[in-house]
Amino acid sequence: MFNKETYIRRRNELKRLVGNGVIVLFGNNESPSNFPNNGYYPFRQDSSFLYYFGQQRDGLVGVIDVDNDTETLIGDDIDIEDIVWYGSVNSVSNMASEVGVAHSAPMKLLTNICNDALRAMRRIHFLPPYRFDIKLQIFDLLGIHPNQQKESASMDLIKAIVKMRSTKDAEEIEELERAAVIGYKMHTTAMRLVKPGVTEKYIAGQVDGIAHSYGSMVSFPTIFTQHGEILHGTPSLNKLEAGKLALCDAGAENMMNYCSDNTRTMPVTGKFTQRQLEIYSIVETCHDYALEISKPGAKYFDIHLAVCRLMTDRLKELGLMKGDTEEAVRAGAHAMFLPHGLGHMMGLDVHDMENFDQINVGFDEETRPKLEQFGTNCLRMGRRLEEGFVVTDEPGIYFIPALIDEWKASGHCKEFLNFDKLETYKDFGGIRIEDDILITKDGCRFIGKDLIPYHPKDVEAFMENN
Ligand SMILES: [Mn+2]
């Protein structure tokens, strides 16, 4: 964990931003897989709890009384029977002092704290819960039914945490760099193993194993598939086939739970075909263009649209799109190929703070768009970039047979799409190239000192030589 001063500073800033009331930050509990003591492994702490209280143990709650300026770490110490099975663990009071918290208390005291605050009509700030055990705990403590908890969660607390967690400081960037080192090893492992006859699941398992072998975990379930056009396709037992592309979207969380998130698309044989290269080079150009124009003050929404226009221009050259580029993008025709946004915030969560809803994280009053159009409606990030933001740059081109059929049948965007040509790409799959970028004072840079190969020549050379 970081120095205790980091957590003290963060909590002080949180108190200043929230201003009043009692903040209750729930840590996660073990999540049972098939019986209560068999938890899914490894344990994953809640990211906001980690940010302010740093401790990785299950069953903890952090309480910050803003009005009285007191902080308490709540949790039960384990008893002798647990020690027999699991060994000794740090006491709750020790864990509190490690992160600069003056008080600790057993879990039953949380009921008193909440009752006292409710009786005094004080505001209790909590975050929208995403685990059912925490929902029950909030129901017991505050009498709010789980169905009402999302709307009863504190928007002031959400806004304060988004403000703080969006900007990464030097010690957080160091952790993100560490995660990137593991991410590099995961991706180059996949590139070494890809060849005809190996199953998708085998490669995904090896990739996951790299993360685990560094004491960390994957930052999200690994996507490894020959069906790159299925955006969140899970690895299957199908064997890799010569002539196809394999898409690997994977990342690590380091020991401090900071994430990496990269995507590479590679030819199963190690050599791109001409048709694959044509599409790949468009994605490559879009990826590099986003890197060129990302800087403080630029709206990520505008960068997304600039990339869409560039992609449209290039797809017109290939005869897959037609008509006026501006009009095509305004109509959302490009979403046939790129139905998602250019990227998202990344930090302690791979889609950072996704549990607060992306509209509260990736957008603000100024940039909150009308999100009705297909493709644009699932953008995760649109607000102005600031120094210290970490975002992903992940353009892709996908040929989704069902989408081609649907738009062809309805005539949607037919003035901008060449459906006859699209028909011939139904077996193509999809390509995405993704890297993580840090917004610097006057531009941006990649996170990760070794960049996973992505220029076609580099990919082919790596696959040939490793
Ligand atoms: Mn991503």
Automatic annotation (TrEMBL):
One GO MF term attached to the UniProt entry: metalloaminopeptidase activity
Biological processes per GO annotation: proteolysis
Enzyme class: hydrolase
Domain Aminopeptidase P N-terminal residue range list: 2-135
GO cellular component: cytosol
Catalysed reactions, semicolon-separated: Release of any N-terminal amino acid, including proline, that is linked to proline, even from a dipeptide or tripeptide
EC identifiers of the protein: 3.4.11.9
Family membership: Belongs to the peptidase M24B family.
Protein name per UniProt: Xaa-Pro aminopeptidase
Species per Swiss-Prot/TrEMBL record: Hoylesella pleuritidis F0068
